[in-house]
C-alpha cells in the first residue's frame, strides 16, 4: 500500500506547537516510508479563516523545514487543496447519503437547538440532538420548507451496536453507537462540517494513514460510520498523545508561547525545534536525543509513538537548542546570530566578519539561544552601557575605584597594539603596579565596561568595544564613582 498522509490545518490562527508536531509526524512517516505528504487547508469557516493565518501557517512549516509533496504551491493530482474549492465533492457524496436513507434533512433552527440543549442540561442529561426531524414524513417536510426554513443534512446514526478500530498508537478503541447523536453533515448554508469534509477529502485524496492529535478520537467513530455508509475503506488511524505544560495541564497560552513563530523570534533554531517536537511522544531507543531532520526521516516509526501525554519542557528545549548551536560550524553559527541581531534592530553595518565571529566566540557556551547573542552581547551592540545598579553598588564600595579605572583607561589609550594579548598584558601589569590582585581590577573594569558582573571575558570585551568606547566607558565610570563618593562625603 502506498503511504499517503496529510496535515490539514484551519487558517484561523498561527501554527501552534501541537499542530506543528502533527505536521512533523506526518512528514516523517511519509519520508520514512517513501510516501507522499499532503497539505490540505480546511478553510470552510469563512468567518474566521484569513489570508494572514494561512501565510503564518505556511511560513511556520517552511521555517521548520517541512515540505509537502501536494498542496498549496506544490500542486498535485488530488486537488483542489483548499476545502472552500471542493464543494462539488461534498454535495455529490451528501446526495448519495440522502438518497440511500443514511442522511436526512433537519429543519431545526439554532435557537430551537440551543433551547433543547439547555433543557437537557437542566435535567442532567448529556446534550445531544433528539432526532425529531429523522422521522418527519413528506408532508411535514413540505410544511417546514413552506415556512422558509433552511435545512441542514444530518447523518442517521445506527441506534445500537459498537464502532471500533485498531489505533496504531492506542490499540483497540471502541464507542457505543447509542451515545453518538445524529450529527450534521452539511449546514443549511451548504458548507460541510469538519467530520464530513474530512472523510470525503481523505477518501478522494487516497489517504492511507490519518495521523492526528488524540483530541480527534471522539470524531473517529462518526467518521468510520461515514466510511461504511459510503462503501469506502477508512485509513489507518494513529492518534498521537496530547502535549502538556510543565504543570500537567494541556499546553496553552498560560504556559507561555504556543506559536511556532514565537520560538523562532525567541532565538530557537528550526533544527532544535524539529528535534524537540519529534521527541514529544516519539522516541528512538529511549536514550538518544539529538537528531537532524534527515536523521529523523530515516529513523521515524509510528510504533515508537507512545500513548502517554508528552510534556513541553522549555529547559529541555533550551538545552537542545544549545547543543544544535554547538554543532554548527563557527561561520554558520555567527551568520545566524548576526541575522537574528539584525532582525532585532541592531545595526551591524561596518562590523567586520572578524568582529562578528569574535562576539559569538566571546559569548561561548552561554549561547543557548540566538537571543543570548543580544543578552550577553548587549555591551558591544549598544553605544551606551546599561548599568546594573546592584553590580554598580558593589563596585562603588571598593577603594580607589576612580583612580584605578582612570589608570586602566590611560593604559588602553596608550596601547599601540590593542590585541587580546596586549590588553591582558596591560591590565595585569597595572594590577601588579597597584599592588592589587588582577581579578579585583578586572571585576571592577567588567562592570564599568558592560554594566554587568557576568559577561564574556574582559579582554574580549575590551577588544569588541574598541579603544575609543572602552576608554570612554572606563572614564565615565571613574567620573561617576568620584561624583557619588564625593556626594556621600558632603
Question: Could you walk me through the main structural features you see in this protein, from its secondary elements to its overall organization?
Answer:
The protein has a three-stranded antiparallel beta sheet with strand order 3-4-7. The protein has a two-stranded parallel sheet with strand order 1-2. A two-stranded antiparallel ribbon has the order 5-6. It starts with a strand and ends with a helix. Helix 9 (270-278) crosses helix 11, helix 12 packs across helix 13 (353-363) and helix 17 (420-434) packs parallel to helix 19 (458-489). The protein has 19 helices and eleven strands. It is mainly alpha-helical and 490 residues long. Strand 1 (4-7), helix 1 (17-32) and strand 2 form a beta-alpha-beta unit. It has helices at 17-32, 51-64, 87-99, 110-122, 138-146, 194-204, 220-230, 260-265, 270-278, 293-299, 314-327, 330-343, 353-363, 371-381, 389-396, 401-413, 420-434, 438-450, 458-489, and strands at 4-7, 36-39, 103-106, 152-155, 162-167, 171-176, 184-186, 209-213, 236-240, 243-244, 310-311. The longest helix has 32 residues, at 458-489. Helix content is 49%, strand content 9%.
Amino acid at each position: 500500500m502506498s503511504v499517503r498522509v496529510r496535515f490539514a490545518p484551519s487558517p484561523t490562527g498561527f501554527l501552534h506547537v501541537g499542530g506543528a508536531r502533527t505536521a512533523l509526524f506526518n512528514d516523517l512517516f511519509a519520508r520514512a516510508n517513501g510516501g507522499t505528504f499532503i497539505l490540505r487547508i480546511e478553510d470552510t469557516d469563512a468567518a474566521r479563516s484569513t489570508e494572514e493565518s494561512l501565510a503564518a501557517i505556511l511560513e511556520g512549516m517552511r521555517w521548520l523545514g517541512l515540505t509537502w509533496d501536494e498542496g498549496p504551491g506544490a500542486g498535485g493530482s488530488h486537488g483542489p487543496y483548499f476545502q472552500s474549492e471542493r464543494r462539488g465533492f461534498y454535495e455529490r457524496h451528501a446526495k448519495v447519503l440522502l438518497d440511500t436513507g443514511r442522511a436526512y434533512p433537519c429543519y431545526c433552527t439554532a435557537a430551537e437547538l440551543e433551547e433543547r440543549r439547555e433543557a437537557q442540561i437542566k435535567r442532567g442529561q448529556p446534550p445531544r440532538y433528539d432526532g425529531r426531524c429523522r422521522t418527519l414524513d413528506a408532508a411535514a417536510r413540505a410544511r417546514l420548507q413552506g415556512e422558509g426554513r433552511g435545512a441542514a443534512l444530518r447523518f442517521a446514526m445506527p441506534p445500537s451496536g459498537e464502532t471500533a478500530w485498531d489505533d496504531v498508537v492506542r490499540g483497540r478503541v471502541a464507542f457505543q453507537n447509542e451515545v453518538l447523536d445524529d450529527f450534521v453533515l452539511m449546514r443549511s448554508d451548504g458548507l460541510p462540517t469538519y467530520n464530513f469534509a474530512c472523510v470525503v477529502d481523505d477518501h478522494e485524496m487516497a489517504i492511507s494513514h490519518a495521523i492526528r492529535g488524540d483530541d480527534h478520537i471522539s470524531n473517529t467513530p462518526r467518521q468510520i460510520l461515514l466510511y461504511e455508509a459510503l462503501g469506502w475503506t477508512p485509513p489507518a488511524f494513529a492518534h498521537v498523545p496530547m502535549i502538556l505544560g510543565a504543570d500537567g495541564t494541556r499546553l496553552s497560552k498560560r504556559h507561555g508561547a504556543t506559536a511556532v513563530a514565537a520560538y523562532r523570534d525567541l532565538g530557537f533554531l528550526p533544527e532544535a525545534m524539529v528535534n524537540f517536537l519529534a521527541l514529544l511522544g516519539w522516541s528512538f531507543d529511549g536514550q538518544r536525543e539529538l537528531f537532524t531532520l534527515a536523521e529523523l526521516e530515516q529513523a521515524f516509526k509510528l510504533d515508537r509513538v507512545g500513548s502517554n501525554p508528552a510534556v513541553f519542557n522549555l529547559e529541555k528545549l533550551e538545552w537542545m537548542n544549545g547543543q544544535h548551536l554547538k554543532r554548527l560550524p563557527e561561520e554558520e553559527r555567527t551568520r545566524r546570530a548576526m541575522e537574528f541581531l539584525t532582525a532585532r534592530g541592531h545595526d551591524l553595518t561596518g562590523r567586520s566578519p572578524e568582529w562578528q565571529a569574535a562576539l559569538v566566540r566571546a559569548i561561548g557556551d552561554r549561547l543557548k539561544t540566538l537571543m543570548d547573542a543580544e543578552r550577553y552581547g548587549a555591551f558591544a551592540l549598544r553605544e551606551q552601557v546599561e548599568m546594573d545598579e546592584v553590580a554598580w553598588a558593589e563596585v562603588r564600595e571598593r577603594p580607589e575605584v576612580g583612580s584605578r579605572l582612570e589608570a586602566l583607561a590611560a593604559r588602553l589609550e596608550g596601547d599601540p597594539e590593542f590585541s587580546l594579548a596586549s590588553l591582558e598584558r596591560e591590565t595585569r601589569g597595572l594590577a601588579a603596579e597597584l599592588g592589587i590582585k588582577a581579578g579585583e581590577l578586572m571585576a571592577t573594569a567588567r562592570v564599568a565596561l558592560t554594566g554587568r558582573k557576568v559577561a564574556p571575558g574582559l579582554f574580549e570585551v575590551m577588544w569588541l568595544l574598541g579603544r575609543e568606547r572602552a576608554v570612554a566607558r572606563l572614564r565615565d565610570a571613574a567620573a561617576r564613582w568620584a561624583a557619588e563618593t564625593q556626594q556621600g562625603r558632603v
